[in-house]
Amino acid sequence: MNSTQKPNPSQRRKARKLALQALYQWHIAEQPITQIEAEFLVDNDMSKVDQEYFSDVLRGVPRIKSELDEHISKHTDRAIDEMTPIELAILRMGTFEFMHRIDVPYKVIINEGVELSKSFGANEAHRFVNGVLDKLAQELRITEVKA
């Protein structure tokens, strides 16, 4: 994909799914994010993936993890270490997108987070993820939410 092409929703969705899996691996295995990214680029067919988005989220989340966790903690009564690694990765990705990917509408971020939690999370994870992302949107994208 050249830099003038806008990624289509399918490419972005695949990038999100791979970013979630990579962030999950980073959380569990505690390997360097650059090593995980290299493995994912080799092990997956990236021809139909928004690679720029994948790399941005994958590198960005670990870089500002503490800041992301602070925002998340304000909107849930669960401690960060009580969340499943999948819920936490989805919430960190969503929070990162709210803060640093203003090209992505907040409703898309919430919807994609809910869909990922339905696919990869525990039984009712999508309700939890939806509630937290909704509150985060009202904090981090207040102008967009009110519009």
Automatic annotation (TrEMBL):
GO terms for molecular function: RNA binding. CDD domains: Terminator_NusB. Residues 13-137 form the NusB/RsmB/TIM44 domain. Keywords: RNA-binding, Transcription, Transcription antitermination, Transcription regulation. The keyword Protease does not apply. Pfam families: NusB (PF01029). This is Transcription antitermination protein NusB. GO terms for cellular component: cytosol. Gene3D superfamilies: NusB-like (1.10.940.10). It comes from Reinekea thalattae. Involved in transcription antitermination. Required for transcription of ribosomal RNA (rRNA) genes. Binds specifically to the boxA antiterminator sequence of the ribosomal RNA (rrn) operons.
